């Protein structure tokens, strides 16, 4: 059982935005519905009531002017004092036939009210409705100009409502942001712990459950899973230590007994078989041991790969190594060195020239090992990662190895959260591509 089966990618930061959107969207919809109700019902109703009040005052004034034409100055003074209306009488004036009126809400409401109450030709100028509205009414032999203060037709509750709506929205948005940040923080911490554990790093002691009840349940499940995996790895390591001791002890006795025998072709053949058995047992134990207990440390991967390539070059292997700058990454140095060493060894077994490249590719660090050998058929490339599977069916370790090199290499890479792929090499042979997340 491998840890990678339990590991998810680190929680993307857009998750916080989506979570916040879940809370903000109902708030925005509520504000839009409230605004629609206000403008469609409240504002229309208030504006209509104000317009009918003005129309009623003008109806009263025009009736008073008709009944008492000699008291027009007193009527105008009383209207100014009691109603706040400025009245100007223009004798002999006639309104144009075309009505000059805007198509705004105030104009429509006021025009409707005047048509119902005054029933005379009129014109409305509401270009400065917040300060004043000018109404011209056609009388029998004159035009009555009425200057209405803007406050009598324009309700300040509109701005107050908008200010309250925007203000409360900002406050609720801030509260929602703080709430979601506190809820998402433990999820991110849990995601980081899972990612670290999946890449072979020590996440520390038990993850402390925090946040919502569901997050605490997930954290508790992660702690139980981590303990089970650690216990399984420890039990496997202890078992393999015993197996190693049990197998190596009789082999050591055989080697001692062979040393006491006279040298002969038969004894030399037995010594060779014993040596091969030791190598095979070491290979099996290396594969089964997996990542072992080696801790992850921040390592300069370019220097590590260059050092491995240099050792092979000093051994007479034709190898060209190219690294792109200095790249630091968290690795189990010994396990990763064994992985790259296995890939180079596999290439050297079948090819004459090897090319090793290390560099950053997007969100990954890649190490490629190319050769000019015969390569591996595409339908066999996934099979060669199976333990003990070899393209050479002879089972001769000298010609095909133990069949564990690629299996060990992929196991090591996946322990680090990456993957190992086999592809066609531009040099005509096989390319082994190691991809590690940054």
TrEMBL record:
Chief location category: membrane
Presence of keyword Phosphoprotein: yes
Membrane association type: Multi-pass membrane protein
Catalytic activity, as annotated: ATP + protein L-histidine = ADP + protein N-phospho-L-histidine
Gene Ontology cellular-component terms listed: plasma membrane
Domain Histidine kinase stretches: 242-438
TM region positions: 20-39, 159-180
Domain HAMP: 181-234
Keyword Kinase: yes
Entry coiled-coil feature ranges: none
Keyword terms of this UniProt record: ATP-binding, Cell inner membrane, Cell membrane, Kinase, Membrane, Nucleotide-binding, Phosphoprotein, Transferase, Transmembrane, Transmembrane helix, Two-component regulatory system
CDD domains with a match to the protein in the record: HisKA
Pfam families linked to this entry: HAMP, HATPase_c, HisKA
Signal peptide, first to last residue: none
Protein name as it appears in the record: histidine kinase
UniProt organism field: Aestuariispira insulae
